[in-house]
Write a structure and sequence with these properties.
Blueprint (H helix, E strand, L loop, with lengths): L7 H11 L2 H8 L4 H9 L3 H10 L2 H10 L2 H10 L2 H10 L2 H11 L1 H8 L4 H11 L6 H4 L6 E2 L5 H10 L10 E5 L5 E6 H6 L6 H4 L7 E2 L4 H11 L3 E5 L5 E6 H19 L14 H33 L6 H6 L2 H24 L8 H29 L4 H31 L9 H23 L3
Parallel strand pairs: 1-2, 4-5
Antiparallel strand pairs: 2-3, 5-6
Helix pairs in contact: 1-3, 1-4, 2-4, 3-5, 5-7, 7-9, 8-9, 8-10, 15-16, 16-19, 17-19, 17-20, 19-20, 19-21, 19-22, 20-21, 21-22
Length: 456
């Protein structure tokens, strides 16, 4: 189905226009949920719904899980409860809890009344654990045996059991009659062992474990440190209650690391996909930190104002009055540029956006810059009046701030994309580089606006 001339998103849009559920199911049955989700983010909601409704229920459920939360919620609002309940029922239990974030808590409770009672009870059991804990993310579908189980029985169980019975069989867990974990052995050891060897002869008696109530990030980093496929999860009495798998651990680490990187760039909020966020959500994530930094720059301006007045006993010149606001202006420009660069570089690094999305990114960032620039420009204008700078100087500040922020945001968006296009690591367009560049160009914008209003 794929061609060199069409992107995957365009191919899905073509399928949506055909509106043939059988064709959609046939063409996309072998595609990965992650790829379909990435394409749906770039499509209109109506076209995406046609694609979702045409997929096999299990694949459609996986796609909804892979979609960014905000995008998934938009699709979920358009799907009936019966369809969502069917999706929920075919999901693994650890993914089922993630589904709760996609559809919202109230609707999720309604869906639990529709699915089989046994599955609903298991989901509620996992929901009893604290949010962001290992217990919330574990699966109860693991391979357990008694100490005296021979390897012939272990291998027979693996051969005859359904694919849905176990989340993974890389590791086999040895438990006693009270479900206390005695040890672990690998599938490799089971295959290489003699048929009559029993589990207690092969198991590692000092396994690395996770506690159900501990933070998932701690357990994920422990798993990464030792290179395990999964960690057994114990309750407070040492009984095994589930396993924490490698794919969930990777997702936790990726999300936590992403949030840390965004915070370093002055961007708050969860690690949502860039294209799934609308303009107001982007502003909400950036403006609070920008306001904090903006207010902090007032202190620098106050210091300059104090010493400028002391140095100019006969009154300050126009140029001296303008100089007072330079830290405020270049700080706002550098910080807003840094926010954008961090966000776009991160999105490029994990494949959320590409150079093909340049125009879409510029349109979004233009609107974001206008909104943030208007807020900061208004605050700067009022502050300048409060400092007694006069109407003209205050107007210059009020106009220069939106202009500088718009310029910094544009540069911060384009440079990482240009670097990617030239096969240069976008990370070289990091916050220090953007800040330095915007400082110099921001001064030019400031003084050029000032020249159009006053003479100095």
């Amino acid at each position: 189905m794929r061609t060199d001339d069409l992107t995957f998103a365009e191919q899905l849009a073509s399928l949506a226009r055909a509106n043939d559920a059988g064709l959609i199911r046939e063409q996309l049955s072998d595609e990965r949920a992650e790829d379909i989700a990435d394409a749906l983010v770039r499509m209109d909601l109506d076209d995406g719904l046609i694609i979702l409704r045409g997929l096999e229920p299990s694949l459609a459920a996986d796609v909804l899980i892979e979609l960014p939360t905000e995008t998934s919620r938009a699709y979920s609002r358009e799907l009936p409860d019966s369809t969502l309940a069917h999706y929920l029922d075919v999901l693994p239990m650890d993914d089922a809890l993630e589904f709760r974030e996609e559809v919202g808590k109230e609707r999720f409770d309604v869906l639990l009344e529709i699915i089989p009672a046994e599955d609903a009870e298991e989901i509620r059991r996992l929901m009893d654990y604290p949010e962001d804990s290992v217990g919330r993310m574990m699966t109860e579908q693991f391979f357990e045996v008694k100490p005296d189980t021979p390897m012939s029985d272990v291998l027979r169980d693996i051969r005859l059991s359904s694919e849905e019975k176990y989340e993974t069989v890389n590791d086999i867990y040895v438990v006693d009659d009270h479900r206390h974990l005695l040890g672990i052995f690998s599938l490799r050891r089971a295959i290489r062992a003699l048929p009559d060897q029993i589990a207690s002869e092969l198991m590692n008696r000092e396994p690395v474990t996770a506690e159900a109530y501990e933070p998932a990030e701690e357990a994920a980093r422990r798993m990464a440190r030792y290179g395990f496929y999964a960690l057994p999860v114990l309750d407070r009495r040492g009984r095994i209650v589930g396993i924490f798998t490698g794919d969930d651990a990777q997702a936790v680490i990726r999300e936590e690391d992403t949030e840390d990187v965004l915070k370093l760039g002055g961007v708050s909020g969860d690690a949502e996909a860039y294209l799934s966020l609308n303009v107001f959500q982007l502003v909400k994530r950036r403006l609070p930190w920008l306001l904090v930094l903006f207010v902090a720059e007032f202190f620098t301006g106050a210091v300059l104002r104090r010493y400028t007045h002391q140095a100019q006993a006969g009154g300050t010149t126009v140029l001296a009055q303008l100089m007072i606001f330079i830290p405020l202006l270049i700080g706002a420009g550098g910080n807003s540029g840094s926010q954008v660069t961090t966000t776009i570089t991160r999105a490029l690094a994990i494949g959320e956006v590409g150079t093909r999305d340049a125009l879409r990114i510029l349109r979004r960032e233009f609107l974001v810059a206008i909104l943030m620039g208007t807020v900061l420009g208004s605050i700067g204008y009022v502050r300048a009046l409060m400092w007694g700078s006069g109407l003209e100087i205050s107007l210059i500040v009020g106009l220069a701030l939106p202009a500088i922020i718009l310029w910094a945001t544009t540069v911060g968006s384009l440079l990482p994309l240009a670097a990617k296009r030239l096969n240069i690591d976008p990370a070289v367009m990091s916050a220090p580089f953007i800040t330095t560049f915007c400082d110099a160009t921001g001064l030019i914008i400031f003084f050029e606006i000032a020249r159009q209003i006053i003479t100095f």
